[in-house]
Design brief:
With 456 residues, this protein is α+β, with helices and mostly antiparallel strands. The protein folds into 3 domains: 246 residues, BirA Bifunctional Protein, domain 2 (2-Layer Sandwich), CATH 3.30.930.10; 59 residues, Herpes Virus-1; 93 residues, Rossmann fold (3-Layer(aba) Sandwich), CATH 3.40.50.800. The chain is 34% helix and 29% strand. It has 15 helices and 24 strands. The strands form 7 sheets. A 7-stranded mixed sheet has the order 3-10-11-17-14-13-12. A 5-stranded mixed sheet has the order 21-20-22-23-24. The longest helix is centred in the N-terminal third of the chain and has 20 residues. It is globular and about 75 Å long. Bound molecules: adenosine-5'-triphosphate. Adenosine-5'-triphosphate binds next to strand 11, strand 14, strand 17 and helix 11.
Length: 456
């Protein structure tokens, strides 16, 4: 990848122009921290989810996938500790009222906020003499809870407080007993979930990196406590495999051991996978050993026994858990940044996404050499229909000259373009052009099908 080329502006503009990612509620001026996905965005995300599911669920024999409700009981979040501690320190501009994350303001001033109380952070900010980005004084800070409350029920008086889930993980913990009762799995086993999560982030920013509605791909892997190290290493390796298979640039991916004072209090070990995003090196995914904290807390708050009985040893205990937690939106961002390039091909500068064919939203483009020759058009349509039986993402383009058609596909990462010409009518062969090299060869339909199959 050409890191210089993958600037924030270039990625945002390509994503919008070609229909990957739009600002949420765009025609009303946009709603901060929300995004809408166009056809290419949807297809790209589906592919990223499919590969995650392959790596984390389908290639294993010990995984149970669930899909829990987005709206969850308020007790869930009391038990998990979110209502009490899922907060960020907020500081605002005294004049404009604009809000900022106080810890991020301090970090930008080279002050490490880790372990500081709200008052200590405030004292450090005052001592630094820093002003807001608008040049004004800051107001005294407060803590701000990130959970989105919703009121459920028909009338305001009887409405019950519930929350949009702040992470998919809790949907897994509250279904632990359901899976045990329905399937009687033996330890170790895991539960997996892909789905939306909501956080009322104080300052959503950096494109899809920090949004208020996002998607997570999470596993809770239940183990006997003495086996945690092996399970941790196993999932760490699975995360590396996933990064490789979706085409994240491995030398821009860094595994960072999180120090005790920076970890959640219940976590015995946390490794953050950081990526060199256009706006800096930041957390892409997290891997944590959460001990038995979640199941124990839910047992305590729900009064439902969430322990596990081991038939072989006759022991009853609360399993411990390893949690690989991946954000789909940050994954998509890292994949696009890794794939983006501006290079020269045949004397022209082009924008190209070097996406892994399995990740690419469009697998192939088929076009007739000339759009005013009915025989060519009919043959090209026939070829496209045959390819669509293998995978639906086969584009059609008969506009402008062939070179322009190729450029349009390069920009969205389509691995191959197939052109039907007069020779195709004679001998059935066609030209296939490869995205990264621009190389063109004549092949049979069977050979085109082979390539397509490898991209599915
Ligand atoms: P950060 O420190 O950046 O706020 P976090 O440590 O709170 O992230 P986790 O609670 O560990 O994040 O969430 C797991 C994963 O979910 C993250 O690694 C990230 O990929 C994703 N994620 C978390 N918050 C957001 C967000 N606001 N927007 C997009 N993705 C997010």
């Amino acid at each position: 990848m050409n890191r210089q080329a993958a600037s924030m502006e270039a990625l945002v503009s390509l994503a919008k122009r070609r229909g990957f990612i739009f600002q949420g509620s765009d025609i009303y001026g946009g709603l901060a921290g929300t995004f809408d996905y166009g056809p290419l965005g949807v297809a790209l995300r589906e592919n990223l989810k499919k590969i995650w599911k392959d790596v984390s669920v389908n290639r294993r024999d010990d995984m149970y996938e669930i899909d829990a409700s987005l709206i969850m009981h308020s007790k869930v979040w009391e038990a998990s500790g979110h209502t009490e501690t899922f907060t960020d320190p907020l500081v605002s501009d005294k004049e404009t009222g604009e809000r900022y994350r106080l810890d991020h303001v301090l970090e930008a001033l080279d002050i490490d906020p880790v372990g500081m109380t709200l008052d200590q952070m405030w004292d450090a900010l005052v001592a630094s003499g820093a002003k807001s980005p608008n040049g004004n004084e800051y107001a005294y800070p407060m803590t701000f809870n990130l959970l989105f409350p919703v009121s459920m029920g028909a009338s305001e008086t009887s409405a019950a407080l519930a929350y949009l889930r702040g992470e998919t993980a809790q949907g897994i913990f509250v279904n632990f007993k359901n899976i045990i009762d329905a399937y009687h799995p033996k330890l170790p086993f895991g539960m997996a979930q892909i789905g939306k999560a909501f956080r009322n982030e104080i300052a959503p920013r950096e494109f899809v990196f920090r949004s208020r509605e996002f998607e997570q791909m999470e596993v809770e892997y239940f183990i006997r406590p003495e086996n945690w190290e092996a399970a941790f290493a196993d999932w760490q390796e699975a995360m590396r495999t996933y990064a490789q298979e979706v085409g994240i640039e491995m030398k821009a991916l860094h595994e960072k051991e999180i120090e005790k004072e920076d970890r959640a209090h219940y976590s015995k070990r946390t490794v953050d996978f950081e990526f060199e995003f256009p706006a800096g090196t930041k957390e892409l995914w997290g891997l944590a050993y959460r001990t038995d904290y979640d199941l124990s807390r839910h047992s305590e708050y729900s009064k439902v026994d969430l322990s596990y009985f081991d038939d072989a040893t006759g022991e009853r205990f609360v399993p411990h858990v390893i949690e690989p937690s991946l954000g789909l939106d940050r994954t998509m961002f890292a994949v696009l940044a890794s794939a983006y390039d501006e290079d020269e091909l045949g004397g022209d500068t082009r924008v190209v996404l070097h996406l892994n064919p399995k990740v690419a939203p469009v697998k192939m483009m088929v076009s007739p050499l000339l759009k005013n020759k009915p025989d060519l058009v009919a043959k090209a349509k026939e070829v496209r229909a045959a390819l669509k039986k293998i995978h639906p993402a086969i584009a059609w383009d008969d506009n402008g000259n062939i070179g322009k058609r190729y450029r349009r596909q390069d920009e969205i990462g389509t691995p191959w373009c197939v052109t039907i010409d007069f020779d195709t009518l004679e001998d059935g062969t066609m030209t296939i052009r490869e995205r990264d090299t621009g190389e063109q060869v004549r092949v049979s339909l069977d050979e085109v099908v082979e390539r397509l199959k490898a991209a599915v």
